[in-house]
Design a protein that fits this description.
With about 400 residues, the chain is mainly β. It has one domain: Beta Barrel (Porin). Helices cover about 5% and strands about 55% of the residues. It contains 2 helices and 21 strands. The strands form 2 sheets. A 16-stranded antiparallel barrel has the order 3-5-6-7-8-9-10-11-12-15-16-17-18-19-20-21. It starts with a helix and ends with a strand.
């Protein structure tokens, strides 16, 4: 089925472009408006527009080489085709538009429709969205395109604690308002939800990303109760943006044919995100932190935590920006990512000792951008991860070199 979907999509695109005069193609750059929020990331992408038609097509590619060692053991050199994302949009009519994103990961091993929605604008503050939506928890979940980041790996907290690029069938409202240097935005959706896999999985711990393995979430809600995701964000053009978000709902099946079989159990996620650019030196700082609360049955061992938290902080410093090798606005940057995740916050009931299952990582980087839409990046990772019993941490370190570009 995955292979068939891939062939159909590429045959469609190839046939479409084969019949089009190249002179009719027009490159549409990313939105140049400075006051943008993270919620605008889905539409703030370069694309190729077919003249006199409402259709635009674009995408991005991520690929890299990596060599990591954990406690002296390494799998050697690895070349990884991380992901290929293809997005298509259409201005259906005045105030009605469509956008979709299909992502191919690990060379086509995993294919997913990450986003496919119809937006209907009634007023700048009141817009309706329905389809497959990306739940706006934190900032990275929506603003995740590889070419925007200086690091080959996505943040650990955004992919191994939160379910990275978590999308579901759903609907809701969103809107924005400008006032001088200030900008306000909000999103509120009801959608498909989590299921029992967040506490019944191969990881052997409370693990929200396991819910992404269930394709039925696009057609059926396990609990019968929708997941609510809401976010508000405020931006000042001179200070930066701060966002507050919440995602919560019942995850377990507690009724069957009208018969109560269990008590409803909730999962709640709270997140804060922030980004700013320091004046004069142009240092870009972005990060997010999230807290997770899961109602775990009392029959489960303490191996399954009911509280988790973690986040990341990226610091990017441009060191050179000028014409290089015929690229007019090339830039050279140094960067560093700091990360921390605790999958089981608390203490053992029997000993009052701290429960382990936490990780921290530091990742310095050098990146070169021939244009703003392409990045070549060299990263070094030093990571320490402690097991649930607090034994001496396993140490992972190594290098990765990759390229990511819009097309």
């Amino acid at each position: 089925m995955k292979l068939r979907l891939t062939l159909i999509l590429f045959l469609f695109i190839s046939n479409l472009f084969a019949q089009i005069d190249p002179s009719l193609l027009k490159r549409i750059p990313k939105d140049t408006v400075k006051q943008l929020l993270n919620m605008d990331a889905m539409y703030n992408r370069p694309s190729l527009n077919i003249n006199k038609t409402p259709i635009a097509i674009g995408g991005y590619l991520e690929t890299n080489w990596q060599k990591l060692t954990t406690d002296g053991i390494s799998e050697g050199h690895q070349f990884q085709a991380r992901r290929l994302s293809v997005f298509m949009s259409s201005a259906i009519s005045k105030r009605i538009k469509f956008l979709s994103e299909i992502e191919y990961e690990e060379g086509g091993k995993e294919i997913a429709i990450e986003f496919a929605s119809v937006d209907v604008e009634f007023h700048p503050l009141v817009n309706f969205r329905a389809g497959i939506i990306i739940n706006p928890i934190g900032a990275f979940n929506q603003n995740h395109d590889g070419p925007k980041w200086e690091f080959t790996d996505r943040p650990i907290s955004a992919t191994q604690m939160l379910p990275g690029t978590f999308s579901n069938s759903g609907a809701g409202l969103f809107g924005k308002k400008y006032s001088g240097n200030w900008m306000f935005g909000y999103e509120a959706y009801f959608s498909g939800s989590f299921d029992n896999s967040i506490i019944d999985n191969t990881e052997g711990k409370t693990f929200l990303p396991s819910a992404k393995e269930n394709p039925e979430r696009f057609e059926e809600i396990n609990s019968g109760e929708p997941l609510f995701t809401g976010k508000i964000a405020v931006r000042n053009s001179k200070i930066g943006e701060i966002g507050l978000s919440h995602m919560g709902g019942i995850y377990n099946k507690f009724t069957d044919d009208g018969i109560t079989i269990d008590v409803p159990r909730r999962v709640n996620v709270y997140a804060i995100d922030f980004n700013t650019t320091l004046p004069k030196i142009k240092t870009f700082i972005t990060g997010e932190w999230a807290w997770i609360n899961v109602e775990v049955p009392e029959t489960y061992t303490q191996q399954f935590g009911n509280k988790q938290h973690g986040g990341f902080l990226d610091i990017v410093q441009p060191v050179l920006k000028r014409k290089m090798l015929d690229w007019e606005n090339a830039s050279l940057n140094i960067a560093c990512r700091l990360e921390y995740v605790d999958w089981n916050v608390g203490r053992f009931n029997e000993t009052n000792g701290n429960i382990g299952e936490h990780l921290w990582s530091i990742m310095p980087a050098i990146s070169f951008r021939p244009t703003s839409q392409t990045v070549i990046r060299l990263n070094y990772r030093l990571q320490k991860q402690t097991d649930i019993f607090g034994n001496p941490p396993s140490i992972t370190d190594g290098y990765s070199l990759g390229i990511s570009t819009y097309f």
